[in-house]
Amino acid sequence: MKILGLSAFHRDSAAALLVDGELVAATQEQNFTRRLHDSAFPRRAARFCLDAAGLRAQDLDHVVYYEKPLKKFERLLASQLRGFPRSAKVFSRSMFLWLGDRLWVKNRIMEELEVSADVVGFVEHQLAHAAVAFYPSPFEQAAILALDDVGEWATTLLGEGTTGQPLRVFDELRFPHSLGLFLSAFTQFLGLEPGRDEVLVEALAAHGSPSFLDELRVLLGIQDDGSPAVDHKYFRFSFDNDRLFDESLEGRLGPARHSGMALDFRGESTRHADLAASVQQHLEDCTQSLVARLRLASSSDKLCVTGFLAQNRRLIQHLVEQSGFSEVWVALEPDKAGAALGAALFAHHQRNPQSDRQRLTSLAFGEVATSRSEEATKGLETAGAVREVLVESLSQGKPVGWVRGAQELGGLSRGHRSILGDPRPSDGARRLLQSLGAGEDYRPCEILISKAWASRLLRIGDAGSELLSHGLSSAFATDDLRRFAPSAVQPDGRVWPLVVAGDRDPELAELLDSFEKQTGVPVLLHGSLQLRGTPLVRNEADAVEAFQRSQLECLVVERALYRR
After folding, report:
1. Hey, is 71 helix, strand or coil?
2. Residue 81: its pLDDT value, please?
3. Whole-angstrom Cα distance, residue 147 to residue 157?
4. In Å, how far are 2, 52, 143, 157, 324 from 292, measured between CA atoms?
5. How wide is the angle at C-alpha 44 spanned by C-alphas 39 and 49, nearest 5°?
6. Is 240 helix (H, G, I), strand (E, B) or coil?
7. What is the predicted pLDDT for the residue at 509?
8. pLDDT higher for 92 or 315?
9. Which domains can be identified in the chain, with CATH numbers?
10. Alpha-carbon Rg of the chain, whole angstroms?
Protein backbone atom coordinates (compact mmCIF):
# COMPACT_ATOMS: atom_id res chain seq x y z
CA MET A 1 0.00 0.00 0.00
CA LYS A 2 1.33 3.39 -1.02
CA ILE A 3 0.23 6.38 1.07
CA LEU A 4 1.28 10.01 0.64
CA GLY A 5 0.75 12.32 3.63
CA LEU A 6 0.51 16.09 3.12
CA SER A 7 0.49 19.22 5.27
CA ALA A 8 -0.06 22.76 4.00
CA PHE A 9 -1.39 26.30 4.49
CA HIS A 10 -0.15 26.94 8.02
CA ARG A 11 3.65 26.66 8.13
CA ASP A 12 6.23 24.09 7.07
CA SER A 13 4.22 22.41 4.31
CA ALA A 14 5.53 18.90 3.76
CA ALA A 15 5.01 15.53 2.11
CA ALA A 16 5.85 12.04 3.37
CA LEU A 17 5.51 8.73 1.52
CA LEU A 18 4.87 5.32 3.07
CA VAL A 19 5.16 2.10 1.08
CA ASP A 20 3.69 -0.88 2.92
CA GLY A 21 4.00 1.03 6.17
CA GLU A 22 7.67 1.94 5.70
CA LEU A 23 8.77 5.56 5.34
CA VAL A 24 10.68 5.92 2.08
CA ALA A 25 10.77 9.71 1.55
CA ALA A 26 9.86 12.89 3.43
CA THR A 27 10.67 16.54 2.86
CA GLN A 28 9.34 20.09 3.17
CA GLU A 29 8.27 22.54 0.48
CA GLN A 30 10.63 25.19 1.87
CA ASN A 31 13.60 23.07 0.85
CA PHE A 32 12.75 23.65 -2.81
CA THR A 33 11.35 27.19 -2.75
CA ARG A 34 14.00 28.38 -0.22
CA ARG A 35 11.26 30.33 1.62
CA LEU A 36 11.58 29.67 5.34
CA HIS A 37 8.50 27.95 6.81
CA ASP A 38 6.82 27.96 3.39
CA SER A 39 3.12 27.15 3.80
CA ALA A 40 2.30 26.71 0.10
CA PHE A 41 0.79 23.51 -1.24
CA PRO A 42 3.72 21.01 -1.21
CA ARG A 43 3.81 20.33 -4.93
CA ARG A 44 7.59 20.01 -5.16
CA ALA A 45 7.88 18.05 -1.93
CA ALA A 46 5.27 15.54 -3.13
CA ARG A 47 7.03 15.20 -6.48
CA PHE A 48 10.34 14.52 -4.72
CA CYS A 49 8.77 11.76 -2.62
CA LEU A 50 7.24 10.08 -5.65
CA ASP A 51 10.44 10.33 -7.68
CA ALA A 52 12.49 8.95 -4.76
CA ALA A 53 10.29 5.84 -4.75
CA GLY A 54 10.08 5.57 -8.54
CA LEU A 55 6.31 6.08 -8.46
CA ARG A 56 3.72 8.15 -10.26
CA ALA A 57 0.89 9.82 -8.39
CA GLN A 58 -1.50 7.39 -10.11
CA ASP A 59 0.27 4.55 -8.27
CA LEU A 60 -0.85 5.91 -4.89
CA ASP A 61 -3.55 4.07 -2.95
CA HIS A 62 -4.22 7.04 -0.67
CA VAL A 63 -3.33 10.71 -0.35
CA VAL A 64 -4.06 11.90 3.19
CA TYR A 65 -4.25 15.52 4.30
CA TYR A 66 -3.28 16.41 7.88
CA GLU A 67 -6.52 18.13 8.93
CA LYS A 68 -10.17 18.50 8.00
CA PRO A 69 -10.64 21.81 6.15
CA LEU A 70 -14.38 22.09 6.65
CA LYS A 71 -14.05 21.78 10.42
CA LYS A 72 -11.23 24.30 10.43
CA PHE A 73 -13.27 26.74 8.35
CA GLU A 74 -16.17 26.27 10.76
CA ARG A 75 -13.90 27.26 13.64
CA LEU A 76 -12.49 30.23 11.77
CA LEU A 77 -15.92 31.53 10.78
CA ALA A 78 -17.46 31.05 14.22
CA SER A 79 -14.48 32.65 15.98
CA GLN A 80 -14.37 35.70 13.76
CA LEU A 81 -18.11 36.28 14.04
CA ARG A 82 -17.83 35.92 17.81
CA GLY A 83 -14.98 38.43 17.80
CA PHE A 84 -16.93 41.08 15.86
CA PRO A 85 -16.44 44.09 15.73
CA ARG A 86 -12.78 43.59 16.68
CA SER A 87 -12.46 41.05 13.87
CA ALA A 88 -13.91 43.29 11.18
CA LYS A 89 -10.57 44.23 9.59
CA VAL A 90 -9.33 40.68 9.25
CA PHE A 91 -12.62 38.99 8.35
CA SER A 92 -12.63 39.82 4.64
CA ARG A 93 -8.99 38.78 4.17
CA SER A 94 -9.58 35.47 5.93
CA MET A 95 -12.66 34.75 3.86
CA PHE A 96 -10.75 35.57 0.68
CA LEU A 97 -8.05 33.03 1.54
CA TRP A 98 -10.43 30.29 2.58
CA LEU A 99 -13.01 30.71 -0.14
CA GLY A 100 -10.15 30.85 -2.62
CA ASP A 101 -8.40 27.50 -2.31
CA ARG A 102 -7.93 26.48 1.33
CA LEU A 103 -11.46 25.22 1.72
CA TRP A 104 -11.24 23.19 -1.47
CA VAL A 105 -8.15 21.19 -0.56
CA LYS A 106 -9.55 17.98 -2.00
CA ASN A 107 -9.91 19.56 -5.44
CA ARG A 108 -6.45 21.08 -5.14
CA ILE A 109 -4.90 17.69 -4.36
CA MET A 110 -6.75 16.07 -7.25
CA GLU A 111 -5.59 18.78 -9.67
CA GLU A 112 -1.98 19.02 -8.49
CA LEU A 113 -1.34 15.27 -8.32
CA GLU A 114 -3.83 14.15 -10.96
CA VAL A 115 -5.46 11.57 -8.71
CA SER A 116 -9.12 10.59 -8.41
CA ALA A 117 -11.44 11.74 -5.63
CA ASP A 118 -11.68 8.29 -4.00
CA VAL A 119 -7.92 8.34 -3.29
CA VAL A 120 -8.00 11.56 -1.22
CA GLY A 121 -8.69 11.43 2.52
CA PHE A 122 -8.39 13.56 5.64
CA VAL A 123 -7.42 13.03 9.27
CA GLU A 124 -8.05 15.32 12.22
CA HIS A 125 -5.04 17.47 12.95
CA GLN A 126 -4.27 16.36 16.50
CA LEU A 127 -4.64 12.70 15.52
CA ALA A 128 -1.96 13.27 12.86
CA HIS A 129 0.29 14.66 15.59
CA ALA A 130 -0.55 11.73 17.86
CA ALA A 131 0.24 9.23 15.11
CA VAL A 132 3.70 10.63 14.36
CA ALA A 133 4.50 10.47 18.07
CA PHE A 134 3.27 6.97 18.87
CA TYR A 135 3.71 4.75 15.82
CA PRO A 136 7.48 5.36 15.34
CA SER A 137 8.09 5.26 19.12
CA PRO A 138 9.77 2.35 20.95
CA PHE A 139 6.64 1.71 23.08
CA GLU A 140 3.98 -0.98 22.62
CA GLN A 141 1.60 1.16 24.66
CA ALA A 142 1.89 4.78 25.73
CA ALA A 143 -0.08 7.81 26.86
CA ILE A 144 -0.06 10.57 24.23
CA LEU A 145 0.06 14.30 24.87
CA ALA A 146 -0.26 16.60 21.83
CA LEU A 147 0.64 20.16 22.85
CA ASP A 148 -0.16 22.20 19.77
CA ASP A 149 -1.12 25.73 18.82
CA VAL A 150 -4.25 25.01 16.77
CA GLY A 151 -5.76 22.57 14.32
CA GLU A 152 -9.48 22.44 13.63
CA TRP A 153 -11.02 23.03 17.08
CA ALA A 154 -8.69 20.97 19.28
CA THR A 155 -5.45 22.61 20.43
CA THR A 156 -4.36 19.86 22.84
CA LEU A 157 -5.03 16.12 22.88
CA LEU A 158 -4.84 13.64 25.73
CA GLY A 159 -4.90 10.08 24.46
CA GLU A 160 -3.30 6.66 24.33
CA GLY A 161 -1.76 4.39 21.76
CA THR A 162 -1.64 0.60 21.85
CA THR A 163 -0.10 -1.60 19.18
CA GLY A 164 -2.77 -3.25 17.05
CA GLN A 165 -5.56 -0.95 18.27
CA PRO A 166 -6.91 2.43 17.13
CA LEU A 167 -5.59 5.53 18.86
CA ARG A 168 -7.79 6.54 21.80
CA VAL A 169 -8.69 10.13 22.69
CA PHE A 170 -9.49 10.79 26.35
CA ASP A 171 -9.99 14.54 26.16
CA GLU A 172 -9.18 17.68 24.19
CA LEU A 173 -8.49 21.32 24.93
CA ARG A 174 -10.45 23.41 22.45
CA PHE A 175 -9.77 26.72 20.74
CA PRO A 176 -9.20 29.49 21.82
CA HIS A 177 -7.69 27.83 24.91
CA SER A 178 -4.24 27.04 23.54
CA LEU A 179 -0.86 26.81 25.24
CA GLY A 180 0.86 27.10 21.86
CA LEU A 181 -0.96 30.29 20.89
CA PHE A 182 -0.34 31.71 24.36
CA LEU A 183 3.39 31.23 23.77
CA SER A 184 3.17 32.71 20.26
CA ALA A 185 1.35 35.78 21.60
CA PHE A 186 4.20 36.43 24.02
CA THR A 187 6.76 35.71 21.31
CA GLN A 188 5.19 38.61 19.44
CA PHE A 189 4.88 40.70 22.63
CA LEU A 190 8.67 40.38 23.01
CA GLY A 191 9.23 41.73 19.48
CA LEU A 192 9.98 38.34 17.92
CA GLU A 193 8.24 36.49 15.10
CA PRO A 194 5.43 34.18 16.24
CA GLY A 195 5.43 30.71 14.75
CA ARG A 196 9.17 30.94 14.21
CA ASP A 197 11.02 32.48 17.17
CA GLU A 198 9.44 30.63 20.10
CA VAL A 199 12.79 28.92 20.53
CA LEU A 200 14.27 32.34 21.31
CA VAL A 201 11.73 32.87 24.10
CA GLU A 202 12.89 29.59 25.62
CA ALA A 203 16.51 30.73 25.25
CA LEU A 204 15.76 34.15 26.74
CA ALA A 205 14.07 32.51 29.74
CA ALA A 206 17.42 31.16 30.91
CA HIS A 207 18.54 34.74 31.57
CA GLY A 208 15.60 35.78 33.74
CA SER A 209 13.47 34.91 36.76
CA PRO A 210 9.69 34.28 36.70
CA SER A 211 8.71 37.55 38.39
CA PHE A 212 5.58 37.95 36.21
CA LEU A 213 4.20 34.54 37.10
CA ASP A 214 1.28 35.79 39.21
CA GLU A 215 0.13 38.03 36.37
CA LEU A 216 0.33 35.21 33.86
CA ARG A 217 -1.80 32.98 36.09
CA VAL A 218 -4.58 35.50 35.60
CA LEU A 219 -4.12 35.58 31.83
CA LEU A 220 -3.98 31.78 31.57
CA GLY A 221 -5.62 30.10 34.52
CA ILE A 222 -5.95 26.44 35.45
CA GLN A 223 -9.53 25.28 36.00
CA ASP A 224 -10.68 22.80 38.65
CA ASP A 225 -10.39 19.89 36.23
CA GLY A 226 -6.78 20.83 35.42
CA SER A 227 -7.49 22.39 32.01
CA PRO A 228 -5.72 25.66 31.12
CA ALA A 229 -8.14 28.46 30.20
CA VAL A 230 -7.10 31.65 28.36
CA ASP A 231 -8.69 34.97 29.33
CA HIS A 232 -9.11 35.99 25.70
CA LYS A 233 -9.95 39.63 26.41
CA TYR A 234 -6.17 40.11 26.54
CA PHE A 235 -5.55 38.27 23.26
CA ARG A 236 -6.65 38.50 19.63
CA PHE A 237 -5.50 35.10 18.32
CA SER A 238 -9.09 33.82 18.39
CA PHE A 239 -9.78 35.92 15.30
CA ASP A 240 -6.52 37.60 14.16
CA ASN A 241 -3.48 35.69 12.89
CA ASP A 242 -1.35 38.82 12.62
CA ARG A 243 -1.86 40.71 15.89
CA LEU A 244 -2.04 38.03 18.59
CA PHE A 245 -2.35 40.19 21.72
CA ASP A 246 -4.63 43.05 22.66
CA GLU A 247 -3.62 46.51 23.87
CA SER A 248 -5.09 45.57 27.24
CA LEU A 249 -2.17 43.18 27.71
CA GLU A 250 0.20 46.15 27.63
CA GLY A 251 -1.98 47.85 30.20
CA ARG A 252 -1.42 44.87 32.49
CA LEU A 253 2.23 44.01 31.80
CA GLY A 254 3.70 47.25 30.46
CA PRO A 255 4.70 48.14 26.90
CA ALA A 256 5.40 45.46 24.34
CA ARG A 257 8.81 45.36 22.72
CA HIS A 258 8.93 46.16 19.02
CA SER A 259 11.44 44.76 16.56
CA GLY A 260 14.64 46.77 16.63
CA MET A 261 14.26 47.89 20.25
CA ALA A 262 16.85 46.90 22.83
CA LEU A 263 16.20 43.57 24.50
CA ASP A 264 16.47 43.71 28.29
CA PHE A 265 18.06 40.48 29.46
CA ARG A 266 21.15 41.51 31.41
CA GLY A 267 22.48 44.47 33.35
CA GLU A 268 20.20 46.77 35.30
CA SER A 269 17.02 45.71 33.50
CA THR A 270 16.08 42.10 32.77
CA ARG A 271 12.39 42.78 32.13
CA HIS A 272 12.15 40.91 28.85
CA ALA A 273 14.10 37.93 30.15
CA ASP A 274 11.94 37.88 33.29
CA LEU A 275 8.80 37.87 31.17
CA ALA A 276 10.18 35.02 29.04
CA ALA A 277 11.11 33.08 32.19
CA SER A 278 7.59 33.61 33.53
CA VAL A 279 6.00 32.37 30.29
CA GLN A 280 8.27 29.32 30.28
CA GLN A 281 7.53 28.48 33.91
CA HIS A 282 3.78 28.90 33.44
CA LEU A 283 3.80 26.66 30.37
CA GLU A 284 5.55 23.99 32.40
CA ASP A 285 3.02 24.35 35.24
CA CYS A 286 0.04 24.14 32.88
CA THR A 287 1.52 21.14 31.11
CA GLN A 288 2.12 19.41 34.41
CA SER A 289 -1.57 19.87 35.22
CA LEU A 290 -2.52 18.21 31.93
CA VAL A 291 -0.06 15.39 32.57
CA ALA A 292 -1.65 14.71 35.95
CA ARG A 293 -5.01 14.23 34.18
CA LEU A 294 -3.41 12.00 31.56
CA ARG A 295 -1.79 9.76 34.16
CA LEU A 296 -5.22 9.11 35.70
CA ALA A 297 -6.76 8.29 32.32
CA SER A 298 -4.02 6.11 30.83
CA SER A 299 -3.01 2.63 31.93
CA SER A 300 0.54 3.07 30.60
CA ASP A 301 3.58 4.43 32.40
CA LYS A 302 5.15 5.55 29.09
CA LEU A 303 4.50 8.97 27.53
CA CYS A 304 4.70 10.23 23.93
CA VAL A 305 4.73 14.02 23.39
CA THR A 306 4.10 15.87 20.16
CA GLY A 307 2.82 19.13 18.70
CA PHE A 308 4.11 22.68 18.43
CA LEU A 309 5.23 22.94 22.08
CA ALA A 310 7.12 19.64 21.93
CA GLN A 311 9.94 21.62 20.27
CA ASN A 312 10.58 23.36 23.60
CA ARG A 313 13.55 21.49 25.04
CA ARG A 314 13.18 22.85 28.55
CA LEU A 315 9.52 21.82 28.66
CA ILE A 316 10.49 18.31 27.57
CA GLN A 317 13.19 18.19 30.26
CA HIS A 318 10.54 19.18 32.80
CA LEU A 319 8.31 16.31 31.65
CA VAL A 320 11.18 13.86 31.83
CA GLU A 321 11.93 14.91 35.41
CA GLN A 322 8.47 15.70 36.76
CA SER A 323 5.75 13.92 34.75
CA GLY A 324 5.83 10.70 36.76
CA PHE A 325 6.03 8.56 33.62
CA SER A 326 8.87 6.03 33.57
CA GLU A 327 9.93 6.93 30.00
CA VAL A 328 9.23 9.88 27.71
CA TRP A 329 9.42 9.92 23.91
CA VAL A 330 9.01 12.95 21.64
CA ALA A 331 8.04 12.86 17.97
CA LEU A 332 11.23 13.30 15.97
CA GLU A 333 9.54 16.15 14.07
CA PRO A 334 6.63 17.24 16.29
CA ASP A 335 5.31 20.27 14.38
CA LYS A 336 3.44 20.72 11.07
CA ALA A 337 6.00 19.01 8.83
CA GLY A 338 5.87 15.94 11.02
CA ALA A 339 2.08 15.97 10.87
CA ALA A 340 2.32 15.13 7.15
CA LEU A 341 4.04 11.90 8.14
CA GLY A 342 1.53 11.48 10.95
CA ALA A 343 -1.37 11.70 8.49
CA ALA A 344 0.14 8.89 6.41
CA LEU A 345 0.89 6.77 9.48
CA PHE A 346 -2.62 7.23 10.85
CA ALA A 347 -4.15 6.15 7.54
CA HIS A 348 -1.88 3.11 7.27
CA HIS A 349 -2.49 1.79 10.79
CA GLN A 350 -6.20 2.54 10.59
CA ARG A 351 -6.40 0.27 7.55
CA ASN A 352 -3.78 -2.24 8.75
CA PRO A 353 -4.03 -2.33 12.56
CA GLN A 354 -2.01 -5.54 12.90
CA SER A 355 0.86 -4.44 10.65
CA ASP A 356 4.37 -4.03 12.01
CA ARG A 357 5.40 -0.59 13.21
CA GLN A 358 8.54 1.05 11.84
CA ARG A 359 10.63 2.30 14.76
CA LEU A 360 12.32 5.43 13.45
CA THR A 361 15.61 6.66 14.87
CA SER A 362 16.09 9.33 12.20
CA LEU A 363 14.02 11.34 9.73
CA ALA A 364 16.80 11.64 7.16
CA PHE A 365 14.57 10.79 4.19
CA GLY A 366 15.08 13.89 2.06
CA GLU A 367 17.42 14.68 -0.81
CA VAL A 368 20.85 13.05 -0.66
CA ALA A 369 23.85 15.39 -0.74
CA THR A 370 25.91 14.92 -3.88
CA SER A 371 29.63 15.52 -4.25
CA ARG A 372 31.05 17.15 -7.38
CA SER A 373 34.65 17.12 -6.25
CA GLU A 374 35.91 18.71 -9.48
CA GLU A 375 34.33 22.00 -8.32
CA ALA A 376 35.82 21.77 -4.85
CA THR A 377 39.36 22.46 -3.66
CA LYS A 378 39.96 18.73 -3.81
CA GLY A 379 38.31 15.40 -3.29
CA LEU A 380 38.86 13.58 -0.01
CA GLU A 381 39.29 9.93 -0.80
CA THR A 382 38.48 8.40 2.58
CA ALA A 383 36.36 9.06 5.66
CA GLY A 384 39.61 9.39 7.57
CA ALA A 385 40.70 12.22 5.30
CA VAL A 386 37.40 14.00 5.96
CA ARG A 387 37.92 13.71 9.73
CA GLU A 388 41.50 14.92 9.44
CA VAL A 389 40.48 18.08 7.58
CA LEU A 390 37.61 18.85 9.96
CA VAL A 391 39.62 18.22 13.13
CA GLU A 392 42.53 20.32 11.84
CA SER A 393 40.30 23.36 11.40
CA LEU A 394 38.29 22.78 14.58
CA SER A 395 41.35 22.37 16.77
CA GLN A 396 42.55 25.76 15.50
CA GLY A 397 39.26 27.36 16.56
CA LYS A 398 37.90 27.69 13.01
CA PRO A 399 34.21 26.87 12.37
CA VAL A 400 33.38 24.35 9.64
CA GLY A 401 30.39 23.06 7.70
CA TRP A 402 29.69 19.37 7.12
CA VAL A 403 27.02 18.00 4.75
CA ARG A 404 26.43 14.29 4.29
CA GLY A 405 23.71 11.77 3.57
CA ALA A 406 20.03 12.58 3.22
CA GLN A 407 18.43 15.79 4.45
CA GLU A 408 16.40 15.44 7.64
CA LEU A 409 12.72 16.34 7.91
CA GLY A 410 12.21 19.38 10.13
CA GLY A 411 13.98 22.65 10.65
CA LEU A 412 17.06 21.43 12.52
CA SER A 413 20.07 19.32 11.63
CA ARG A 414 20.80 16.23 13.67
CA GLY A 415 24.21 15.76 12.09
CA HIS A 416 23.52 15.70 8.34
CA ARG A 417 23.55 19.47 7.59
CA SER A 418 25.81 20.82 10.33
CA ILE A 419 28.13 23.57 11.40
CA LEU A 420 30.74 22.64 13.99
CA GLY A 421 32.91 24.68 16.31
CA ASP A 422 35.62 24.48 18.95
CA PRO A 423 33.93 24.50 22.39
CA ARG A 424 36.94 25.76 24.35
CA PRO A 425 36.80 29.57 23.80
CA SER A 426 34.57 31.51 26.18
CA ASP A 427 32.77 33.06 23.19
CA GLY A 428 32.85 29.96 20.99
CA ALA A 429 29.07 29.53 20.72
CA ARG A 430 28.51 33.15 19.72
CA ARG A 431 31.28 32.98 17.12
CA LEU A 432 29.89 29.78 15.60
CA LEU A 433 26.34 31.11 15.33
CA GLN A 434 27.54 34.45 14.01
CA SER A 435 29.37 32.66 11.22
CA LEU A 436 25.92 32.18 9.67
CA GLY A 437 24.43 35.48 10.82
CA ALA A 438 22.47 34.11 13.78
CA GLY A 439 24.41 35.40 16.74
CA GLU A 440 21.91 36.77 19.30
CA ASP A 441 23.86 37.01 22.53
CA TYR A 442 21.29 34.94 24.40
CA ARG A 443 20.83 32.19 21.79
CA PRO A 444 22.30 28.86 22.99
CA CYS A 445 24.40 26.61 20.84
CA GLU A 446 23.93 22.85 20.76
CA ILE A 447 26.77 20.56 21.74
CA LEU A 448 27.75 17.13 20.48
CA ILE A 449 28.71 14.62 23.18
CA SER A 450 29.67 10.99 22.73
CA LYS A 451 27.44 8.44 24.44
CA ALA A 452 30.38 7.30 26.54
CA TRP A 453 30.81 10.80 28.00
CA ALA A 454 27.14 11.73 28.39
CA SER A 455 26.66 10.41 31.94
CA ARG A 456 29.77 12.27 33.11
CA LEU A 457 28.99 15.59 31.45
CA LEU A 458 25.19 15.72 31.84
CA ARG A 459 22.86 15.30 34.79
CA ILE A 460 20.30 12.96 33.26
CA GLY A 461 17.96 10.22 34.38
CA ASP A 462 16.73 7.12 32.58
CA ALA A 463 13.29 8.51 31.68
CA GLY A 464 14.51 10.69 28.82
CA SER A 465 18.04 9.59 28.01
CA GLU A 466 17.04 8.43 24.52
CA LEU A 467 15.68 11.91 23.74
CA LEU A 468 19.16 13.38 24.01
CA SER A 469 20.23 11.19 21.09
CA HIS A 470 17.87 13.27 18.95
CA GLY A 471 18.50 16.68 20.52
CA LEU A 472 14.92 16.83 21.84
CA SER A 473 15.54 17.85 25.44
CA SER A 474 17.77 20.13 27.46
CA ALA A 475 19.85 18.87 30.38
CA PHE A 476 21.84 20.32 33.26
CA ALA A 477 25.58 20.55 32.78
CA THR A 478 28.16 19.19 35.19
CA ASP A 479 31.26 21.13 36.23
CA ASP A 480 33.31 19.07 33.77
CA LEU A 481 31.12 20.21 30.89
CA ARG A 482 31.38 23.84 32.02
CA ARG A 483 35.13 23.46 31.80
CA PHE A 484 35.06 21.82 28.35
CA ALA A 485 32.42 24.07 26.74
CA PRO A 486 31.88 27.24 28.79
CA SER A 487 29.98 29.12 26.09
CA ALA A 488 27.40 26.35 25.60
CA VAL A 489 26.16 26.43 29.20
CA GLN A 490 23.22 28.78 29.71
CA PRO A 491 22.90 31.01 32.80
CA ASP A 492 20.46 28.57 34.41
CA GLY A 493 22.97 25.72 34.03
CA ARG A 494 21.28 24.01 31.09
CA VAL A 495 22.72 22.91 27.77
CA TRP A 496 21.16 21.68 24.52
CA PRO A 497 22.95 18.37 23.91
CA LEU A 498 22.96 15.92 21.03
CA VAL A 499 24.34 12.64 22.31
CA VAL A 500 26.12 10.65 19.59
CA ALA A 501 26.16 6.84 19.61
CA GLY A 502 28.69 4.98 17.49
CA ASP A 503 26.22 2.31 16.38
CA ARG A 504 23.76 4.94 15.12
CA ASP A 505 26.11 7.52 13.57
CA PRO A 506 29.65 6.12 13.36
CA GLU A 507 31.00 9.03 11.26
CA LEU A 508 29.96 11.63 13.83
CA ALA A 509 31.14 9.48 16.73
CA GLU A 510 34.55 9.03 15.09
CA LEU A 511 34.85 12.79 14.53
CA LEU A 512 34.21 13.41 18.23
CA ASP A 513 36.77 10.75 19.13
CA SER A 514 39.38 12.28 16.81
CA PHE A 515 38.79 15.78 18.22
CA GLU A 516 39.17 14.43 21.75
CA LYS A 517 42.46 12.74 20.85
CA GLN A 518 43.72 15.98 19.30
CA THR A 519 42.57 18.38 22.04
CA GLY A 520 41.58 16.38 25.12
CA VAL A 521 38.02 17.76 24.81
CA PRO A 522 35.21 15.22 24.17
CA VAL A 523 32.56 17.67 22.91
CA LEU A 524 31.95 19.94 19.91
CA LEU A 525 29.70 22.92 19.37
CA HIS A 526 26.97 22.16 16.84
CA GLY A 527 24.38 24.07 14.80
CA SER A 528 22.34 23.78 11.62
CA LEU A 529 23.79 24.82 8.28
CA GLN A 530 21.34 27.54 7.26
CA LEU A 531 21.80 31.23 6.71
CA ARG A 532 19.66 33.54 8.79
CA GLY A 533 16.14 33.69 7.36
CA THR A 534 16.62 30.68 5.07
CA PRO A 535 15.83 26.96 5.45
CA LEU A 536 18.32 24.21 6.15
CA VAL A 537 20.53 23.59 3.13
CA ARG A 538 19.16 20.82 0.93
CA ASN A 539 22.01 19.77 -1.34
CA GLU A 540 25.54 20.63 -2.37
CA ALA A 541 24.53 23.71 -4.35
CA ASP A 542 22.66 25.15 -1.34
CA ALA A 543 25.57 24.29 0.95
CA VAL A 544 28.17 25.97 -1.27
CA GLU A 545 26.03 29.11 -1.56
CA ALA A 546 25.64 29.25 2.23
CA PHE A 547 29.38 28.68 2.67
CA GLN A 548 30.26 31.51 0.31
CA ARG A 549 28.01 33.90 2.25
CA SER A 550 29.20 32.70 5.66
CA GLN A 551 32.32 33.04 7.76
CA LEU A 552 33.00 29.31 7.88
CA GLU A 553 36.62 28.28 7.41
CA CYS A 554 35.83 25.26 5.25
CA LEU A 555 32.98 23.09 4.03
CA VAL A 556 32.94 19.35 3.39
CA VAL A 557 30.12 17.90 1.27
CA GLU A 558 30.49 14.13 1.40
CA ARG A 559 34.10 13.87 0.10
CA ALA A 560 34.35 17.30 -1.56
CA LEU A 561 36.32 20.00 0.28
CA TYR A 562 35.71 23.73 -0.12
CA ARG A 563 38.08 26.25 1.48
CA ARG A 564 38.34 30.01 1.72
Report:
1. helix
2. 79
3. 7
4. 39, 43, 12, 14, 9
5. 115
6. coil
7. 96
8. 315
9. 2-135+334-351 (3.30.420.40), 179-329 (3.30.420.40), 373-563 (3.90.870.20)
10. 23
